[in-house]
Amino acid sequence: MATSLFPTPVPRRKYPVEFKAGKLKRDGNTNWLKADERKGLVYMDQGDDQLMHFYWKDRKNNAVEDDLILFPEEAEFIRVEQCTTGRVYLLNFKSSSRKLFFWMQDAKDDKDEENVAKVNRLINDPQAGLAESRQQQSSAGQLGSPFQNMQNMDDLAGFGMDQEQLLQLLQGQGFGGPPFTSTTPAEPQSATAATSEAGSGVQTTESNLGFTSEQLGNLRNILSGIQVPGTYIEIEEGTRQPDVSLVDVLTPSAIGPLLNNPEIASALFPHLPANIERSPEELAAVIQSPQFAQALQSLSIALQSGQLGPLLSQLGLDPSAGNGVEAFLRAIQEQANRRHRDHEDENTEDHSGDRMEED
Amino acid sequence: MSDAGQWCLIESDPGVFTELIRAFNVQGTQVEEVWSLDDQTLEELKPVYGLIFLFKWQGGNDSSRLHPEADLSVDENVYFAKQVINNACATQAILSILLNCPTIDLGAELDNFKDFTRLFDPYDKGLAITNSELIRGVHNSFARSDPFFLDQTDQSSSEKEDIFHFISYVPVQGALYELDGLSNGPVNLGPCTGDNWLEKVRPVIQERMSRYTSAEIRFNLLALIKNREDVYRTRIGEIDERMRHASNTNNSSELMQLSEERDQLLQRIEMEKVKFKRYERENSLRKHNFIQFIYNIIRILAERGELQARIEYARKEMSKRIKDRAEKKKGESGSKN
């Protein structure tokens, strides 16, 4: 695979970091992002002002569209975890709510990590970052990537598919699975492995390199309709102090040990589904189940929506407990404190008002 | 819409679908997720009664538009119902297969329903499904019992905007049909046999996939298949027959091979049993209202003076969550290469 079939392009000056990436834009007034389909390049360099600049340019017309000055520690370049299908990264400004999103357009993802690390190094410590990249470039005499002769596959990049998967698509072979499950994020490697293991007739890479023009035409037709999958991701707006999630409050590791206490376990047994055995082991399994996590998450969301006030008064809580997860937790704490005081207080009056009766 | 219109959303999970079908009193079937369309995977699942394809709905792409040349005239052999209610599509997709499969034992209630509505036009069939107490009751038994789920606030905001749609593929009397409750009629995709219909459906689904890939990879393919345990038991019966024959002819090597096969089938039956136990458990947790349970754990933490520390922990977790996740993701993808 060492010899390229195509003449090597005339080298131009390499930037300290550069990689093919497109932009994502907010879709109208929504919190959704839509891929800008133009082929682009993200790169960073020291400007004439000696400051570190972050650029995005359109690879087609070479027009630089974004030119941002980044001061050390001002921003971070991170992967957007919510996007499980494409490779989307976020330039996140720590001091403001400004966010820029990019999707990787290089067919292979093996350089992503390195590039991201370089970006962050250049942001945080520009001089060290520049020195490092100079060193790397002078020692770089690597062979071309095996995919060099696939330059016309450029368009495919960033769709979360590798070459082989695309070919499977073209050849009418099924994906190994992940691409069409709604629950499992796509893992190109495993998908490929699964399909070829199943002996479904995936051709070898070499033989696939010889596309007929018809095949390429088909490919283009398919691709022309493709936006980046999974480009609709939500922007996390950092405007409001985020509420906590019950998922973090009641982690299995935090509440698990409590369940060994027989008194606590038996206080919880009545609240298990009827067909679940009443044992500490089962309790432990329940709190580790995805369904319980889902319940915690749903309840968190419901509490944040502020719709639960009336329901919570059934638990003897103040309706204000429905104003969010923290409000809910504080209300339960106050209820416990109140009960505690009532106990201590010998000349206790009637305290049935806000007690839970049934436990 | 009135109370009749209240249909909960249903999770696309083989355990949920399997229980749903059982709750209709349909015998001898189960639902499995299909991970790949290759021959071996499909072979393993046979007999397959029908496929259910789930995808993110984008307006205006119903089956009749995707197959403009298709003949949509309602063939009286095909049970086709228009989808009248949004959230009912999971149930509707299941029914599209069940009501088109003469080999499935539907049970008395669904049998009656089919008989009763057989001559209705597609819209009236859809209304009948919507108004059937049996069907709605079973469907809604999967509504989580917490009151707030009826408001559908359980959908995180990112999911709220996504509408998923289910369509079915089923062979009916020598032709392959795509049944989409939003389409104007059943889409006849051409002739097929009970043996080759899966081969015929593969390119159709792949075409769908490539189409929807254009927006987002959110697919799920489920197969309604014959109950595995029944399948394995039948095979064991056949093996027993052959073993008798082999022992009569003193063919010890064949005997050994057969008994090995038999053991494997028994093992698979055990695995099926474990799986169904798991389904049952997951479904009961799914349907359970955990609010009392959660409240009581928090109350216990509060009484023990441990709640404040948990809140602080959760605050920290939340503030670094996005960052942490991004890094973890990076780490994961790195270590797999």
TrEMBL record, chain A:
Annotated Basic and acidic residues bias: 349-359
Domain Pru residue range list: 11-126
Region ranges (Disordered): 130-154, 172-205, 332-359
Main location: cytoplasm
UniProt keyword Ribosomal protein present: no
Domain (DEUBAD) ranges: 237-342
Record localization: Cytoplasm; Nucleus
InterPro entries: DEUBAD_dom, Rpn13/ADRM1, Rpn13/ADRM1_Pru, Rpn13/ADRM1_Pru_sf, RPN13_DEUBAD, RPN13_DEUBAD_sf
Amino acid composition bias (Low complexity), ranges on this chain: 190-201
One MF term in the entry's GO annotations: proteasome binding
A single Gene Ontology CC term: proteasome regulatory particle, lid subcomplex
Residue ranges with Polar residues bias: 133-152
PROSITE patterns referenced in this protein's UniProt entry, alphabetically: DEUBAD, PRU
Keywords: Cytoplasm, Nucleus, Proteasome
PANTHER family with a match to the protein in the record: ADHESION REGULATING MOLECULE 1 110 KDA CELL MEMBRANE GLYCOPROTEIN (PTHR12225), PROTEASOMAL UBIQUITIN RECEPTOR ADRM1 (PTHR12225:SF0)
Designated name of the protein: Uncharacterized protein
UniProtKB/TrEMBL annotation, chain B:
Keywords: Coiled coil, Hydrolase, Nucleus, Protease, Thiol protease, Ubl conjugation pathway
Active site: 89 (nucleophile), 165 (proton donor)
EC number of the protein: 3.4.19.12
Leading EC class: hydrolase
Coiled-coil stretches noted in the UniProt entry, renumbered to this chain: 248-282
Main location (coarse class): nucleus
Site-annotated residues for Important for enzyme activity: 180
Highest taxon in the source lineage: Eukaryota
Gene Ontology CC terms: cytoplasm; nucleus
Positions bearing the site annotation: Transition state stabilizer: 83
Segments forming domain UCH catalytic: 6-226
Region forming the signal peptide: none
Subcellular location: Nucleus
Entry-linked InterPro entries: Papain-like_cys_pep_sf, Peptidase_C12_UCH, Peptidase_C12_UCH_sf, Ubiquitinyl_hydrolase_UCH37, UCH_C
Similarity remark: Belongs to the peptidase C12 family.
UniProt-recorded name of the protein: Ubiquitin carboxyl-terminal hydrolase
